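Support case: user asked for a sample of complex input and structure output to validate their parser. Sending the pair below.
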Amino acid sequence: MQFDEQMLQQITIDVCQSMLGLELLPMSPGNDMAHQLVASVEIRGTRHTIVEVFADDQLMASIAEVMFASDRGSLSEEEIRDAFCEIANMIGGNVKGTYGEEANLSLPVFGSAQDWIETLPQGSLRTTFKCCGHPLTIILREVAAPSAELVGSVTSA
Amino acid sequence: MYALIVDDSRAMRHILRKIVEPLGFQIAEAGHGIEGFQRLAEHPEIELVLVDWNMPEMNGIDFVKAVRANPDYERIKLVMVTTETEPSKMARALMTGVDEFLMKPFTPEMLLSKLQLIGVSMPLMA
Amino acid sequence: METVDFDYVRDLVRKRSAIVLENEKSYLVESRLQPLARREGFASINELVTKLRVTGFDGLHSRVVEAMTTNETLFFRDLQPFEALRKVILPELIEKRMSARQLRIWCAACSTGQEPYSIAMTIKEHFPQLATWDVKILATDLSTQVLEKARSGSFNQIEINRGLPAPFIVKYFDRQGMNWQLKEPVRQMIEFQPLNLIEAWPPMSSMDIVFIRNVLIYFEVQTKKEILKKVRRLLRPDGVLFLGGAESTFNLDDSFARTEIEKTSVYRPQS
């Protein structure tokens, strides 16, 4: 089955809206990715893809506050990263589930989007929502080249 | 009554704790399978385990295999709560010995429906 | 939502489905009509209701009624009725129908199909001997839109995650992209048909088991009585009626006797 942007949107809605109660509104993608943070998971099977979730530090904190049911400003940096990585894990796992064949999911990797590779290989998908007033971008990156070189598209924290 | 939550995400452990604790369980937490075993040894009264699949050190499926290999833990109900959603993986988890399987993302109501299916007693549930 | 619009919708829904929308339900009316109004190309609920007022009863009116009467459901809802079915009711009936080798089951407000499919899976899983019997599950609902979804046997992950035992997911569903498709042998056991409980019922065969759960609560006393009377006529003398957890035949129809099985109430015709 062809995986399309609508499916990526639905999975994101299921994770953020149905489970966590965060309201998502579709928006056009911004360009300021370099100043954002990214959590990613890699899907390896017959098909090799990477799911990348981008947010700024304020949105990351808001998501973590919802997941930990905590007050503003009361969470550690580690807890905020942990929550954001779990979002990437859930989205990535559900993307993988639609591929129709078994594949492996990596543990999430967190980093800054500074060295992020802007050009997306053919077949990649990108969708952006407004969440808590900030952009939340999800990218499904098709990995065409041998994976070892491309895992580094996200700077490990 | 004790329940153990094994997940490498603290945020996810917190979400699960907030659902299970009000049912009348005291909660133990672990970040991977090996820690999970330490908690089981510390709290022999644990009767419910919610376990993730993908974790560092020892993953959920190896943890389930090891729990099921130990007759002392025979009465423990195991629920896998994971983002692994392929039917083949679900089948493997069931073969390995989990009692139920919940796909992430989920809502509290979904977890409760799964606990009800496997006869977990929930004294504080209305 | 304006009071006059709410009043109009309440009257429409009451006439067409006998469901009574209390004033405090106006938030529910609003939350369900908003998406419908948008889908139908109206800027607001007010515009939608204005259109309803000036046109005769048509598809749009039906869609409004359907939007107001469609209810959330889940597989094996409340669990105990299905335990009673599996442990007591079906074994008893199988014993009694040994020579006729026929069973008729009716789900009277089946919504998106979770209830009849739960019954069908229970039969497939626990009563393989019925494979050679003539077993039919009739599933009806007021809403044709909902029936179409039910008939497809296709469920999304959120629906699959609610109440369905994992071994059943593995055994009876195929994953197709984002959705889970019920396998043909389970789908084949069910016949879906539109039926409005407050209008004339089409001819139906006598039933061994009737599920009419979580629908009577929406009706007024007189309507409940009429429906129960019709169910009583349809039910075989040794048949069984299942109602919702908050429903009973008490003070409505004394021709039923209540018994407790597996922590759930079932109703049998009094002889």
